[in-house]
Amino acid sequence: MKGQIVTSNKKRLLSGKVVSDKMDKSIVVSIERSKKHPVTNKIIRTHKKYKVHDEKSEAKCGDIVEVYAGRPLSKQKFMYLHKIVNKNALNK
Questions:
Q1: What is the pLDDT of residue 88?
Q2: Phi, psi of 89 (to 5 degrees)
Q3: At 9, is the pLDDT very low, low, confident or very high (cuts 50, 70, 90)?
Q4: What is the pLDDT of residues 46-85, one digit of tens each?
Q5: Which one of 8, 10, 15, 59 is least enclosed by Cβ atoms within 10 Å?
Q6: CA distance from start to end of the chain
Q7: Quick check: helix, strand or coil at residue 16?
Q8: DSSP 22-66
């Protein structure tokens, strides 16, 4: 899974993996990115966790989802769920 960036309808879509779904109407998504170190020129993988608004509570832990940034809903939650790309087979 890579941090793929797709531009559609002027919204920047980020893909990531759901790491927590224990909150009501919210999920935590880990987005992984690769960047080049400025001194050693090695490729470094970094990740960041975002709290994402999931209105229908349909995403489960382990799913691959697409999210986008929007209007802030709370202090830490400003991302919205766009769609579920791949359901986790273990959830079935």
A1: 81
A2: -70, -25
A3: low
A4: 999 999 999 999 999 999 999 999 999 999 999 999 999 9
A5: 10
A6: 21
A7: strand
A8: -STTEEEEEEEEEEE-TTT--EEEEEEEEEEE-TT----TT-EEE
- CA distances, 4 to each of 36, 55, 66, 74 (Å): 16, 23, 9, 26
Amino acid at 66: E
Task: Pull the structure tokens for residue 79.
Answer: 């991302």
Cα(77)–Cα(49) distance, integer angstroms: 11
pTM higher than 0.70: yes
Per the structure, the count of domains in the chain is 1
The parent domain of residue 56 ranges over 5-91
Residue bearing the bigger pLDDT, 90 or 7: 90
CA–CA–CA angle 63, 2, 36 (5° rounding): 150
Stated length of the chain: 92
